[in-house]
Task: structure prediction
Amino acid sequence: MDQIPHVLACDVGSSAVHLAHVQGETVGPMQTVRTSELASLGGKLAKLWQDIPSPKKLVAGSVNAAAMKSLKAAADELLHEPVLVVGQDLPLPMDIDLDEPAAVGTDRLCCAVAAFDRLGAACVVADFGTAVTIDCVSNEGVFLGGAIMPGLAMGAESLNTGTDRLPRVKLSRPAWVFGKNTQQAIVGGLVCGARGALRELTEAYATELGHWPAVILTGGDAKLICPDPSTCQLVQAVVPDLAVRGIAIAYYKTLLKNDE
Result:
Protein backbone atom coordinates (compact mmCIF):
# COMPACT_ATOMS: atom_id res chain seq x y z
CA MET A 1 0.00 0.00 0.00
CA ASP A 2 1.41 3.40 -1.01
CA GLN A 3 -0.67 5.12 1.65
CA ILE A 4 -2.32 3.62 4.70
CA PRO A 5 -6.06 4.25 4.24
CA HIS A 6 -8.12 5.77 7.00
CA VAL A 7 -10.82 3.56 8.48
CA LEU A 8 -13.93 4.49 10.42
CA ALA A 9 -14.15 1.27 12.42
CA CYS A 10 -17.51 0.33 13.93
CA ASP A 11 -17.80 -2.33 16.61
CA VAL A 12 -21.50 -3.21 16.63
CA GLY A 13 -22.02 -5.03 19.91
CA SER A 14 -24.93 -6.40 21.89
CA SER A 15 -25.53 -3.27 23.95
CA ALA A 16 -23.51 -0.53 22.21
CA VAL A 17 -21.91 0.60 18.97
CA HIS A 18 -18.31 1.84 19.33
CA LEU A 19 -16.88 4.10 16.63
CA ALA A 20 -13.28 5.19 16.11
CA HIS A 21 -11.01 6.61 13.42
CA VAL A 22 -8.12 4.23 12.75
CA GLN A 23 -5.09 4.68 10.52
CA GLY A 24 -2.53 1.92 10.88
CA GLU A 25 -1.73 1.66 14.58
CA THR A 26 -3.11 5.11 15.39
CA VAL A 27 -6.60 5.06 16.93
CA GLY A 28 -8.59 8.18 17.70
CA PRO A 29 -10.94 8.61 20.66
CA MET A 30 -13.72 6.05 20.75
CA GLN A 31 -17.33 7.22 20.66
CA THR A 32 -20.10 5.04 22.02
CA VAL A 33 -23.79 4.88 21.14
CA ARG A 34 -25.94 2.61 23.31
CA THR A 35 -28.28 0.37 21.35
CA SER A 36 -31.16 1.97 23.27
CA GLU A 37 -30.16 5.35 21.74
CA LEU A 38 -29.60 4.44 18.09
CA ALA A 39 -31.44 7.56 16.94
CA SER A 40 -28.22 9.48 17.70
CA LEU A 41 -26.01 7.09 15.70
CA GLY A 42 -26.35 8.87 12.36
CA GLY A 43 -25.21 12.24 13.70
CA LYS A 44 -22.09 10.84 15.37
CA LEU A 45 -21.30 8.71 12.34
CA ALA A 46 -21.60 11.68 9.95
CA LYS A 47 -19.45 13.96 12.14
CA LEU A 48 -16.66 11.38 12.43
CA TRP A 49 -16.77 10.62 8.71
CA GLN A 50 -16.55 14.31 7.82
CA ASP A 51 -13.44 14.73 9.97
CA ILE A 52 -11.58 11.77 8.43
CA PRO A 53 -9.37 12.54 5.39
CA SER A 54 -9.41 10.45 2.23
CA PRO A 55 -8.79 7.74 1.24
CA LYS A 56 -11.19 6.27 3.76
CA LYS A 57 -13.50 3.31 4.25
CA LEU A 58 -16.33 2.45 6.63
CA VAL A 59 -15.76 -0.98 8.16
CA ALA A 60 -17.80 -2.84 10.77
CA GLY A 61 -17.81 -6.00 12.83
CA SER A 62 -21.19 -6.97 14.20
CA VAL A 63 -22.89 -9.35 16.60
CA ASN A 64 -26.16 -7.37 16.59
CA ALA A 65 -28.29 -7.59 13.46
CA ALA A 66 -30.75 -4.84 14.44
CA ALA A 67 -28.02 -2.33 15.31
CA MET A 68 -26.11 -3.28 12.14
CA LYS A 69 -29.22 -2.51 10.11
CA SER A 70 -29.39 0.95 11.72
CA LEU A 71 -25.71 1.57 10.98
CA LYS A 72 -26.12 0.60 7.32
CA ALA A 73 -29.22 2.79 6.98
CA ALA A 74 -27.42 5.78 8.49
CA ALA A 75 -24.35 5.24 6.29
CA ASP A 76 -26.49 5.00 3.18
CA GLU A 77 -28.59 8.08 3.98
CA LEU A 78 -25.96 10.41 5.41
CA LEU A 79 -22.62 9.24 4.00
CA HIS A 80 -23.71 7.57 0.74
CA GLU A 81 -21.07 5.01 1.63
CA PRO A 82 -21.33 1.21 1.86
CA VAL A 83 -20.39 -0.53 5.09
CA LEU A 84 -17.79 -3.27 4.64
CA VAL A 85 -18.71 -5.98 7.14
CA VAL A 86 -16.09 -8.37 8.52
CA GLY A 87 -17.08 -11.94 7.73
CA GLN A 88 -19.37 -10.84 4.88
CA ASP A 89 -17.72 -8.26 2.61
CA LEU A 90 -14.29 -8.91 4.14
CA PRO A 91 -12.80 -12.33 4.98
CA LEU A 92 -12.43 -13.36 8.59
CA PRO A 93 -9.11 -11.88 9.72
CA MET A 94 -7.33 -14.99 11.00
CA ASP A 95 -7.17 -18.76 10.70
CA ILE A 96 -9.70 -20.55 12.89
CA ASP A 97 -9.61 -24.00 14.48
CA LEU A 98 -13.30 -24.44 15.31
CA ASP A 99 -16.09 -26.85 14.42
CA GLU A 100 -18.09 -24.08 12.71
CA PRO A 101 -15.76 -21.17 11.84
CA ALA A 102 -18.56 -19.10 10.30
CA ALA A 103 -20.54 -19.18 13.56
CA VAL A 104 -17.94 -17.48 15.77
CA GLY A 105 -18.66 -13.87 16.72
CA THR A 106 -16.60 -11.43 14.67
CA ASP A 107 -16.06 -9.35 17.82
CA ARG A 108 -14.08 -12.23 19.33
CA LEU A 109 -12.01 -12.66 16.16
CA CYS A 110 -11.32 -8.94 15.76
CA CYS A 111 -10.13 -8.65 19.35
CA ALA A 112 -7.99 -11.76 18.89
CA VAL A 113 -6.37 -10.59 15.67
CA ALA A 114 -5.58 -7.17 17.17
CA ALA A 115 -3.92 -8.76 20.19
CA PHE A 116 -1.91 -11.22 18.11
CA ASP A 117 -0.93 -8.52 15.61
CA ARG A 118 0.70 -6.56 18.43
CA LEU A 119 2.23 -9.49 20.35
CA GLY A 120 3.14 -11.94 17.56
CA ALA A 121 2.80 -14.83 20.02
CA ALA A 122 0.22 -16.96 21.79
CA CYS A 123 -2.22 -14.93 23.86
CA VAL A 124 -5.42 -15.05 25.85
CA VAL A 125 -7.94 -12.36 24.92
CA ALA A 126 -10.70 -11.71 27.45
CA ASP A 127 -13.59 -9.36 26.65
CA PHE A 128 -15.59 -8.32 29.71
CA GLY A 129 -18.65 -6.80 28.05
CA THR A 130 -22.34 -7.72 27.86
CA ALA A 131 -21.08 -11.29 27.73
CA VAL A 132 -17.64 -12.42 28.86
CA THR A 133 -15.50 -14.22 26.29
CA ILE A 134 -12.10 -15.68 27.16
CA ASP A 135 -10.35 -16.93 24.04
CA CYS A 136 -6.93 -18.24 23.07
CA VAL A 137 -4.71 -17.68 20.03
CA SER A 138 -1.80 -20.02 19.25
CA ASN A 139 1.80 -19.06 18.54
CA GLU A 140 0.98 -19.51 14.85
CA GLY A 141 -1.85 -16.97 15.01
CA VAL A 142 -4.67 -19.51 14.92
CA PHE A 143 -7.86 -18.78 16.86
CA LEU A 144 -8.31 -21.88 19.03
CA GLY A 145 -11.65 -21.00 20.64
CA GLY A 146 -12.45 -20.38 24.26
CA ALA A 147 -15.29 -19.84 26.69
CA ILE A 148 -18.40 -17.64 26.89
CA MET A 149 -20.07 -16.60 30.15
CA PRO A 150 -22.71 -14.07 31.21
CA GLY A 151 -21.33 -10.56 31.67
CA LEU A 152 -21.13 -9.03 35.13
CA ALA A 153 -24.15 -6.77 34.63
CA MET A 154 -26.13 -9.69 33.22
CA GLY A 155 -25.22 -11.77 36.26
CA ALA A 156 -26.25 -8.99 38.61
CA GLU A 157 -29.57 -8.56 36.80
CA SER A 158 -30.33 -12.28 36.83
CA LEU A 159 -29.69 -12.50 40.59
CA ASN A 160 -32.19 -9.70 41.13
CA THR A 161 -34.90 -10.91 38.74
CA GLY A 162 -34.42 -14.61 39.39
CA THR A 163 -34.72 -14.46 43.18
CA ASP A 164 -37.23 -13.07 45.66
CA ARG A 165 -34.96 -11.07 47.94
CA LEU A 166 -31.63 -10.34 46.29
CA PRO A 167 -31.35 -6.62 45.40
CA ARG A 168 -30.18 -4.94 42.22
CA VAL A 169 -26.57 -3.83 42.78
CA LYS A 170 -24.20 -1.33 41.22
CA LEU A 171 -21.02 -2.97 40.04
CA SER A 172 -17.80 -1.66 41.55
CA ARG A 173 -14.28 -2.75 42.36
CA PRO A 174 -14.47 -4.74 45.63
CA ALA A 175 -12.42 -3.07 48.37
CA TRP A 176 -13.21 -5.90 50.74
CA VAL A 177 -12.55 -9.61 51.08
CA PHE A 178 -15.54 -10.66 53.18
CA GLY A 179 -18.86 -9.28 51.95
CA LYS A 180 -20.42 -7.81 55.10
CA ASN A 181 -23.83 -7.23 53.52
CA THR A 182 -25.83 -8.63 50.63
CA GLN A 183 -24.73 -5.94 48.17
CA GLN A 184 -21.05 -6.51 48.94
CA ALA A 185 -21.52 -10.27 48.73
CA ILE A 186 -23.07 -10.02 45.26
CA VAL A 187 -20.51 -7.54 43.88
CA GLY A 188 -17.62 -9.54 45.34
CA GLY A 189 -19.02 -12.77 43.99
CA LEU A 190 -19.48 -11.41 40.48
CA VAL A 191 -16.15 -9.59 40.17
CA CYS A 192 -14.00 -12.14 42.00
CA GLY A 193 -15.81 -14.97 40.22
CA ALA A 194 -14.91 -13.42 36.86
CA ARG A 195 -11.30 -13.01 37.98
CA GLY A 196 -11.25 -16.64 39.04
CA ALA A 197 -12.68 -17.78 35.73
CA LEU A 198 -10.00 -15.82 33.89
CA ARG A 199 -7.23 -17.40 35.94
CA GLU A 200 -8.67 -20.92 35.70
CA LEU A 201 -9.12 -20.75 31.93
CA THR A 202 -5.73 -19.15 31.36
CA GLU A 203 -4.07 -21.94 33.35
CA ALA A 204 -5.97 -24.53 31.29
CA TYR A 205 -4.96 -22.85 28.03
CA ALA A 206 -1.34 -22.64 29.20
CA THR A 207 -1.35 -26.38 29.91
CA GLU A 208 -2.56 -27.09 26.36
CA LEU A 209 -0.09 -24.65 24.78
CA GLY A 210 2.85 -25.87 26.86
CA HIS A 211 3.73 -22.35 28.04
CA TRP A 212 2.14 -19.33 29.68
CA PRO A 213 0.51 -16.93 27.15
CA ALA A 214 0.17 -13.17 27.46
CA VAL A 215 -3.25 -12.08 28.74
CA ILE A 216 -4.99 -9.05 27.22
CA LEU A 217 -8.28 -7.63 28.52
CA THR A 218 -10.87 -5.43 26.85
CA GLY A 219 -14.53 -4.52 27.35
CA GLY A 220 -16.41 -2.13 29.59
CA ASP A 221 -15.83 -4.11 32.80
CA ALA A 222 -12.16 -4.94 32.19
CA LYS A 223 -10.97 -2.35 34.72
CA LEU A 224 -13.07 -4.02 37.41
CA ILE A 225 -11.23 -7.26 36.75
CA CYS A 226 -7.77 -5.68 36.50
CA PRO A 227 -7.55 -2.06 37.67
CA ASP A 228 -3.79 -1.83 37.05
CA PRO A 229 -1.92 -4.38 34.88
CA SER A 230 1.41 -3.21 36.33
CA THR A 231 0.41 -4.68 39.69
CA CYS A 232 -1.34 -7.78 38.30
CA GLN A 233 0.69 -10.92 37.79
CA LEU A 234 -1.83 -12.42 35.36
CA VAL A 235 -2.76 -9.59 32.98
CA GLN A 236 -0.29 -7.82 30.68
CA ALA A 237 -2.56 -5.07 29.32
CA VAL A 238 -6.07 -3.63 29.27
CA VAL A 239 -6.89 -2.31 25.78
CA PRO A 240 -10.34 -0.64 25.55
CA ASP A 241 -10.18 -0.13 21.76
CA LEU A 242 -9.05 -3.67 20.91
CA ALA A 243 -12.12 -4.52 18.80
CA VAL A 244 -11.98 -1.41 16.59
CA ARG A 245 -8.26 -2.03 16.05
CA GLY A 246 -9.06 -5.57 14.91
CA ILE A 247 -11.83 -4.39 12.60
CA ALA A 248 -9.39 -2.05 10.86
CA ILE A 249 -6.79 -4.84 10.67
CA ALA A 250 -9.34 -7.07 8.92
CA TYR A 251 -9.64 -4.42 6.21
CA TYR A 252 -5.88 -3.89 5.93
CA LYS A 253 -5.29 -7.64 5.63
CA THR A 254 -7.73 -7.76 2.72
CA LEU A 255 -5.93 -4.89 0.99
CA LEU A 256 -2.56 -6.56 1.39
CA LYS A 257 -3.88 -9.85 0.04
CA ASN A 258 -5.38 -8.07 -2.98
CA ASP A 259 -2.02 -6.36 -3.64
CA GLU A 260 -0.13 -9.66 -3.80
Observations:
- The first helix runs from residue 41 to 51.
- The two ends are 10 Å apart (CA to CA).
- The helical segments are 41-51, 65-79, 106-119, 152-161, 182-209, 222-225, 242-259.
